[in-house]
Specification:
alpha+beta, Thrombin, subunit H, Rossmann fold, 5 domains, seven-stranded mixed sheet, six-stranded antiparallel barrel, 31 strands, elongated, transmembrane helix, NACHT_NTPase
């Protein structure tokens, strides 16, 4: 707001309400007149020579009615060489002093090419006689404003370091000894909404159409403490790399909400933005990004021939010349660089560990921070799971959104849910991480699919893979390409120092990294230093080194320079990767009350993490999903495990449930009841195991069961879920009838001939009613469950543990419904049947007992069997919570272990799945674990399959592990075999302790 409290300041660009005329009083001689600009709530930027010897300073602002108001000013900072000064506005409310909270800071930029510019000031040629003055004898004079508009170039005044501003000249030059531009000094020079300089002087020999300005970029020649003071006073960025680079041929177009945006779209996009922001802020805290100081990761326009014509990138009109965009910067400028690309399509190249993932996280958080209503929501998608041959880009994006943000599965739009609606309405900005992670042979199809759309995107990939696909398929249309630069000693020196234990000798602070960094600076070509510098060129290895050598006893950073231990960069990398897990799982107790998390043994943790890495390698993916654990076992083995658990659940409950019925409802004794219970339990359990085992194999088809994205509530069903009521009811009816008929056959043809007929089968009527009851009950249960399903709401987190909890609750609710629907009718029917009843067992009592028994059998036999066969949670319980821990491949508390690994920085969380913090770490763990854990498919223990050791080829000349993937002839992905299905119970296990 202007000083008079009139109108709000514009968020960007020149605002006339903040332009200041500076009037000074000097000790000797007449006062000076100059210009200035209110750059913050309390500060005015002007030229230093205007206020150099001032006794007092007055600041004159415009008011909305064309008048003026004045406040006092006080010089608080000045530099004569750069000719800039900062004035503090006095807090004189009676004079209409401005409110600091109501003025937004300006933005600063540097120019690299000629640009258009403007400045608003009070030059001498605007001197006017005040005709409205009441003093007719001596009317006062005043200077009106002048809006100078022209161009500037960085190539003039190179020696002086000033900007040459070319404008329309004033018509007259009445006083040759005085410049008509006098009084314009101190005016802020603007271009594209940024301050690029301050008007400083007019050279008479240049003519009246040119004057000079002190350029912002040159201010960074000042001492660091002076720059820091300017940062505090006017918001000048702390270093020149953070300045926006101009020009921008097509200025960024703000993404404002369309007037016809449906409320449903706005609400869903807003909720998604909040969820994404919270998710990645939390992840950034866990991964300790920037703690205690960030790595200075830099990037610039790639020199590789892998990007489109600049005219296409800048979407320039035909016939115009499009110059390259200035794309250099650091991570904190990634959003500015992205928005400077008119097409909003940017590719980021970087070797393994170069910082691509951290860049995507920084991009998403910074863009969400500045997001306005209606803007696209940036969402990170890991491209490794996309098969462009079988799934379109939009369909795959929709599926990933629903997986990680279940509330987007709510029905809406033409595509059926909110995720599809947001994609249709262009409210998603895809951040596609890991183009190189797409299966080998599918990169060309993926690039062609991306070229069939013009949607804005940010894509990350390794350079070699991207160069190959571009050579064969052409560039990504309209996309600019930047490449992450190698780190230098100066980039990571402070990062290593501040993350290590201080060593104070001789009164100076130092760390164990000091001699290492000194060698890297002083002898960069030495054998040890050259190897280490090559390894430390990537942020991943620097971060691993800081973790491994953070005060660990017996480890000294100087050992990394020993060529006898580490003869090559590859050896150094393998050492850091191998030492990382023991370093983060330090078993040393830290004091009383130390949690079990801190006492987890490193060897066990490494073995479990090795299995997880080999499991991902087998599936050829980077996404660690809890519902996929154990699915690398043979399908037949999984069917046996699921069938055994279903048989155990149904057989035990049936056998035990028969005891009270036969003891109280018949005249047979305990021996008969035990014998019948054993026979019935074995036969019924065997049947349940066979049925549910084969059902699991048929339903899964070898693929893992996806977790349910719904929850159950009485009044929460939707039209979409209720449409499945009839199909599921018919499925349950048919399944229940067949299962009941087989049970009747077993009881009549096997149990009875063995001498265990208790006379409670109801005869022919019972043989007819029981299948009908079980069939109708099963159909009713599945129909009720379909009716009660509702999409998971936004309040539900997208974490693996929360999604697992939701699926577990659904199965438990399933079991309860099975118990009520099957148990109550069975009890009523059994209570009404005639038969041998003791004096203590009248019909209703017998019916209550039978209903309870049949309900429990239905819950554990039908409900739990259904859960094991048809749900991801059942598969998880059978494989991940029982079989894998029993065989030593995973701990018993799997989710707790994954959460703990996440907190330690070994894993990162991406929506509902985990990933290793870097693919390089995953590959290393795969390589070291498979020789110990891989068996032949024949099942012989202790022999690794020589053709499937899991060691991926390492391309020549590369420091990073290869990422080569195999593709089957049919286009499906294939990983290597690590023998996950042939583990023997206890093989290779350590004591669980």
């Amino acid at each position: 707001m202007n000083p008079a409290g009139g109108r709000a300041a514009e968020p960007d660009g020149l605002d006339a309400g903040r332009v200041v005329q500076v009037l000074t009083t000097r000790r000797a001689g007449p006062g000076r007149r100059g210009s200035g600009y209110q750059v913050s709530g309390h500060a005015v930027l002007t030229a230093a020579h205007v206020v150099s010897d001032a006794v007092s300073v007055r600041l004159r602002f415009f008011t909305e009615d064309g008048g003026t108001t004045e406040v006092s000013g006080e010089p608080v900072w000045a530099d004569a060489a750069m000719d800039i000064a900062v004035l503090r506005i006095a807090r004189d409310t009676s004079a209409g002093g401005p409110g600091a909270a109501e003025v937004r800071p300006v933005r600063f930029a540097a120019i690299t090419q000629p640009v258009e510019c403007e400045a608003l000031g009070f030059p001498r040629f605007r001197l006017r006689l005040d005709s409205a003055s009441t003093d007719r004898d001596d009317p006062p004079w005043y200077r009106d404003s002048h809006h100078a508009r022209g161009t500037t170039t960085p190539l003039s005044y190179l020696r002086a370091g000033s900007l040459e501003i070319s404008v329309a000249p004033p018509e007259y030059d009445p006083e040759p000894d005085r410049s008509p531009w006098e009084g314009m000094s101190g005016a802020a020079v603007w271009s594209g909404g940024y301050v690029i300089g301050v008007v400083s002087e007019h050279h008479r020999f240049d003519g009246l159409g040119r004057f000079a300005a002190s350029q912002v970029k040159r201010w960074y020649r000042l001492a660091p403490d002076r720059i820091s003071a300017l940062n505090d006073l006017i918001g000048l960025p702390a270093d020149a790399d953070r300045l926006t680079q101009l020009p921008q041929l097509s200025p960024p177009r703000p993404e404002t909400p369309e007037p016809d945006d449906a409320p449903e779209v706005r609400e869903a996009a807003g909720k998604l933005a909040r969820e994404v922001s919270e998710q990645w802020r939390r992840e950034g805290r866990w991964q300790r990004v920037g703690d205690p100081s960030p790595l200075a990761v830099r990037f610039g326009c790639t020199e590789r021939n892998v990007f489109d014509h600049w005219a296409n990138i800048r979407r320039a009109p035909f016939g115009t010349v499009a110059e390259p965009l200035p794309l250099d910067g650091r991570l904190d400028r990634i959003v500015e660089v992205y928005e400077s690309v008119p097409s909003r399509r940017l590719v980021v190249l970087g070797e393994a560990g170069s910082g691509k993932t951290v860049l995507t996280l920084r991009f998403v958080l910074d863009r969400l921070k500045a997001r306005a209503a209606g803007d696209r929501v940036p969402v990170i998608f890991g491209l490794g799971s996309w098969d462009p041959v079988t799934t379109s880009l939009d369909d795959w994006l929709c599926g990933q959104l629903v997986r990680d943000y279940p509330f987007l599965d709510a029905p809406a739009g033409k595509r059926g849910n909110l995720a599809g609606l947001l994609l249709d309405e262009d409210k998603i900005l895809p951040v596609l991480d890991g183009f190189d992670e797409i299966a080998s042979g599918l990169h060309g199809a993926a690039l062609r699919a991306l070229n069939r759309t013009t949607m804005p995107l940010l894509l990350t990939t390794r350079p070699a893979e991207y160069s190959r696909v571009v050579e064969d398929n052409g560039v990504l249309t309209e996309a600019a390409v930047i490449e992450l630069a190698d780190l230098t000693v100066d980039d990571y020196a402070d990062y290593l120092h501040r993350g290590s234990r201080p060593v104070r000798e001789g009164g100076e602070d130092s760390t164990a990294w000091q001699p290492v960094l000194a060698r890297l600076r002083e002898e960069p070509d030495g054998p040890g230093a050259a190897n280490l510098a090559q390894v430390f060129a990537t942020p991943l290895m620097v971060a691993l080194a800081r973790t491994v050598y953070r005060g660990t006893p017996g480890r000294r950073p100087s050992d990394l320079l020993d060529v006898r231990k580490f003869a090559s960069p590859e050896a150094l990398q393998e050492h850091l990767l191998a030492a990382f897990i023991p370093a983060v799982y330090d078993p040393t107790p830290t004091g009383r009350g130390t949690s079990r998390r801190r006492r987890r043994h490193p060897e066990r943790a490494q073995r479990w993490l090795g299995y997880l890495a080999a499991h991902l390698h087998e599936l050829d993916t980077r996404d660690l999903a809890w519902w996929e654990l154990g699915t690398t076992m043979r399908l037949s083995s999984r069917m046996l495990v699921v069938g055994f658990l279903a048989a155990l659940a149904f057989g035990v409950t049936t056998g035990i449930g028969n005891l009270p019925v036969d003891l109280l409802a018949t005249e047979h004794g305990l021996g008969f009841a035990l014998g019948r219970g054993l026979a019935v339990g074995l036969l019924h359990g065997l049947l349940a195991g066979l049925v549910f085992g084969f059902v699991y194999g048929f339903v899964s088809g070898g693929a893992p069961r996806e977790p349910s994205r719904v929850r159950l509530q009485i009044f929460g069903g939707t039209r979409q879920t209720r449409d499945t009521f009839l199909p599921r009811s018919l499925l349950g009816l048919g399944f229940g009838l067949l299962f009941a008929l087989v049970l009747v056959f077993l009881d009549r043809c096997l149990v009875a001939p063995l001498g265990f007929d208790d006379g409670l089968d109801g005869g022919l009527l019972g043989a007819i009613l029981f299948p009908l009851e079980l069939g109708l009950g099963a159909g009713l249960v599945l129909g009720i469950m379909a009716w009660l399903e509702a999409p998971i709401e936004i309040g539900s987190a997208v974490s693996a543990s929360e999604l697992l909890s939701t699926n577990r609750k659904n199965v438990v609710f399933h079991m309860l419904v099975w118990m009520l629907v099957i148990g109550i009718p069975a009890g009523l029917g059994f209570g009404l049947l005639s038969g041998p009843v003791g004096v203590l067992m009248p019909g209703p009592v017998r019916g209550l007992l039978a209903g309870l028994v049949f309900g429990i059998e239905a819950a554990f036999g039908g409900g739990l069997g259904y859960g094991l066969s048809f749900t991801a949670w059942g598969q998880w319980v059978a494989l991940s919570r029982m079989w894998l821990p029993l065989t030593g491949r995973l701990p018993w508390a799997v989710i707790a272990f994954l959460d703990d690994a996440h907190r330690r920085g070994v894993l990162r969380q991406a929506g509902a799945v985990y990933q290793f913090r870097h693919a390089r770490l995953q590959d290393h763990l795969t390589q070291v674990s498979q020789p110990h854990h891989a068996f032949r498919r024949s099942g012989s223990p202790g022999r690794a399959d020589p053709e499937h050791t899991g060691n991926r080829p390492r391309p020549e000349g590369r420091l990073d592990s290869g990422n080569t993937r195999r593709s089957r002839p049919d286009g499906t992905h294939g990983g290597t075999t690590h023998g996950g299905a042939n583990w023997l119970p206890g093989a290779g296990r350590e004591s669980q302790g």
